[in-house]
From TrEMBL:
The chain crosses the membrane at residues 20-41. GO terms for molecular function: calcium ion binding; calcium-dependent phospholipid binding; calmodulin binding; clathrin binding; phosphatidylserine binding; SNARE binding. The keyword Transmembrane helix applies. Residues 53-106 are annotated as: Disordered. It comes from Moschus moschiferus. Pfam families: C2 (PF00168). Belongs to the synaptotagmin family. Coiled coil: none annotated. This is Synaptotagmin-7. The lineage of its organism: Eukaryota, Metazoa, Chordata, Craniata, Vertebrata. Residues 135-255, 266-399 form the C2 domain.
Length: 403
């Protein structure tokens, strides 16, 4: 009997059988992987597509971000729509299913691209980009001109989502109205107490103003937080050149507030220590020194001193202050102040540190502030907790002065 020398031994699979088995195994693996990827991508893309529809489709979905309207320019000008460009909506899922695939490699490449687009890293980048600019809220106002009476009318309507400037977690906002470059003549709204979404609905008239001069002015609105014990804190500002507005009728605008120009830049740092003595029910505040203070005087320097306020439940309890250091942007104070604070009142207590610039001829200027309590900023809260955790020991820390 003739026997093929290359034939396998009895019971061993032939080469054709092994090849077929390998092909089946690879096909099943690819199918399982692709099915898993498809389901994962469909869930991700479906969720993203649903969120996009909810964002674009509802008129109130823009709250918390910027909402701007088109500015109508004078005749002959070009209308400028400053509304933000909506992000591109992903393709409908049904469109993806019906797209022809030339091969398995095309399908894998396509799914890989979509997976990269939907990776968590890209979503984090988008979120970071959206939070990179501080949200100062927005303001609604109207402006128009009466040619017969030569009067410019400005109506301050309301503001939304203003930041909290007081340690109690709120603000007392009001608005100043200027026609730049004139800063001497200004008008002001009433103060709205403890309100981050105030409604003013106040109308202001600039009478006897020729139209030729009006179009050379810039309407400037500054929102401030009223402070009884020190200078009012700036919240944000808006400016609009009146030659860019059709003043023949009242125009209403929503504008995002921008950081005030006089509040930009570093204000310097202050080194201070806190020492809590639970048996004596007291806190000792030691104002040690400051560095790189902002120059508030014309000569490029300041005459700094420090005020220390003890506040309990939004009420002033006690005030102390250091001596004034003449013409010094890096003063050394080394002055200590003791305050009686019962342990049970610690959570409702705030210590406000204010660095001031002494001025003989006018009102003293605020260089910067620090709020120390359980509910201040991260650095301030850390200092406060370290003080509680280490009783009878002075705990020193540098703090950045804030507007």
């Amino acid at each position: 009997m003739y026997r093929d020398p290359e034939a396998a031994s009895p019971g061993a699979p032939t080469r054709d059988v092994l090849l077929v088995s390998a092909i089946i195994t690879v096909s099943l693996s690819v199918t399982v992987v692709l099915c898993g990827l498809c389901h994962w991508c469909q869930r991700k893309l479906g969720k993203r597509y649903k969120n996009s529809l909810e964002t674009v489709g509802t008129p109130d979905s823009g709250r918390g971000r910027s909402e701007k309207k088109a500015i109508k320019l004078p005749a002959g000008g070009k209308a400028v729509n400053t509304a933000p460009v909506p992000s591109q909506t992903p393709h409908d899922e049904s469109d993806r299913r019906t797209e022809p695939r030339s091969s398995v490699s095309d399908l894998v490449n396509s799914l890989t691209s979509e997976m990269l687009m939907l990776s968590p890293g890209s979503e984090e980048d988008e979120a970071h980009e959206g939070c990179s600019r501080e949200n100062l809220g927005r303001i609604q106002f109207s402006v128009g001109y009466n040619f017969q009476e030569s009067t410019l009318t400005v109506k301050i309507m309301k503001a939304q989502e203003l930041p909290a400037k007081d340690f109690s977690g709120t603000s007392d906002p009001f608005v100043k109205i200027y026609l730049l470059p004139d800063k001497k003549h200004k008008l002001e709204t009433k103060v709205k107490r403890k309100n981050l979404n105030p409604h003013w609905n106040e109308t202001f008239l600039f009478e006897g103003f020729p139209y030729e001069k009006v179009v050379q002015r810039v309407l400037y609105l500054q929102v401030l937080d009223y402070d009884r014990f020190s200078r009012n804190d700036p919240i944000g500002e808006v400016s609009i050149p009146l030659n860019k507005v059709d003043l023949t009728q009242m125009q209403t605008f929503w504008k995002d507030l921008k950081p005030c120009s006089d509040g930009s830049g570093s204000r310097g740092e202050l080194l201070l220590s806190l020492c809590y003595n639970p048996s004596a029910n007291s806190i000792i505040v030691n104002i040690i020194k400051a560095r790189n203070l902002k120059a508030m005087d014309i000569g490029g320097t300041s005459d700094p001193y420090v005020k220390v306020w003890l506040m309990y439940k939004d009420k002033r309890v006690e005030k102390k202050k250091t001596v004034t250091m003449k013409r010094n942007l890096n003063p050394i104070f080394n002055e200590s102040f003791a305050f009686d604070i019962p342990t049970e009142k610690l959570r409702e207590t705030t210590i406000i540190i204010t660095v001031m610039d002494k001025d003989k001829l006018s009102r003293n200027d605020v260089i910067g502030k620090i709020y120390l309590s359980w509910k201040s900023g991260p650095g301030e809260v850390k200092h406060w907790k370290d003080m509680i955790a280490r009783p009878r020991q002075p705990v020193a820390q540098w703090h950045q002065l804030k507007a």
